[in-house]
Amino acid sequence: MGLKIGVIGYSGKLEDEPVKLLKNICLELGRKLGEKYIVFTGGRDGVMELVSKGVREVGGTCIGILPWEGTDANEYNSVVINTGLDFQMRSFIIVKSVDAVISIGGEIGTAVEMLATYANRRPLILLRNTGGWTDKLPNVLIDGKYLDNRRMAIVYQAFNVEQVMNILDELEKTNEVNNTDHE
Q1: Which residues share a beta bridge with 62?
Q2: 3-state SS string for 24-58
Q3: Is residue 179 part of a domain?
Q4: Residue 178 located in a structural domain
């Protein structure tokens, strides 16, 4: 298998907004990622559960990195890792374990994960028009693709699943992912 891809975003019940509005795009993304990559999520509900379900539907592998003791893992994780850590510390495990991160919507926890992704020199792909911090972050980008003047990693913007997959294909082809921390 190719790259290891993290997916971050809204938590919450599947029947509640904004998660229910993102159901189709999350399932589609999960299916596409699951056909080609190993997927990492926070392993819980919301975007994490929907993407994991899509991965499972195509026989892919989804690793759920859970905070605390992991008692709220979703049923679609292939592997659950109970970190015993709080949400923020768990998030760093996800970021350090993957080659690139895709963001879908999200509240403050997702914002922390996006900053951690950039600080750890991982490409970040914003799946736009999904709300939350994913749609707020572009307003502060330098030259439309960096979070600070150090230009440590590119923040990409995609407006559909096909564009996300094209970005990942390009990253894989050009080897523009940082694999040094977890080989």
Answers
A1: 39
A2: HHHHHHHHHHHHHCEEEECCCCCHHHHHHHHHHHC
A3: no
A4: no
